[in-house]
Amino acid sequence: MDKKHWRYAFEKTLPIGIVYLMLALGFGIMMQSKGFNWIWALCLSFFVYSGSIQFLAPVILSSSTGIFATVILTFMVNFRLLFYGISQLERYKKIKGWRKLYLVHGLTDETFSLVSIDNLPEGIEREKYSLYVTVLNHMYWTVGSVAGSLVGNLLPFSTEGIDFALTALFFVVVLNQWEATNNHKPALLGMSVGVIFFIIFGPDNFMLPSMFVVIAFLLVENRLKGGNPDYV
Questions:
Q1: Mean pLDDT over residues 82-105, rounded?
Q2: Distance set, CA 132 to CA 106, 126, 146, 163, 175 (Å)
Q3: Surface-to-core class of residue 44, CB atoms within 10 Å of its CB (0-12 exposed, 13-18 middle, 19+ buried)
Q4: pLDDT band, residue 112 (cuts 50/70/90)
Q5: If you placed Cys at 20, which of 108, 140, 172, 191 could pair as Cys (CB 3.0 to 4.6 Å)?
């Protein structure tokens, strides 16, 4: 076991792990309240592994929502992950086999904020670091989901509003990412386009067109710059 890489990845993921455990606990409680046992929570957390759509999953599964509508809803909710995936193309290009597939599967918002940093300490390999960060974050979420499903009805406190912790966490990791990278142009572009489209389309409809515009712009710029992985 590579203790050095595991230790470093654990130190970096610990704040995320605490929030993931609490959020996933809330998801597990929701699954239990809708009549789904811990196996459902385990499978959704392991194979779907997307906080936003997972919190909608109990409602979707317990309603008469059709497959087509579920696919469209899932695509729209998780569309932002395409943006993250594009930015990791060069970093993951040399990784082969199941590791690459798993890194793609496990690329959440918070994991992206950690694996996309420009500078790693001496002796820390990017492939191992990225893999261990992804595994640990996935484990936090899965363990929390199963625990919530098993003991949700025994908790002596209300978990209402617990999902706001994800917003707070994402704000913090964005600040960390700003400090860890040398290129702030994509972040400034995303904020600017988001604000403009928010004004034009309103709070319910601005996200999708904003993502399309930002992704198109970054892809064109990246192509003009020769596919520099530090740009996106």
A1: 82
A2: 11, 10, 21, 25, 22
A3: buried
A4: confident
A5: 140
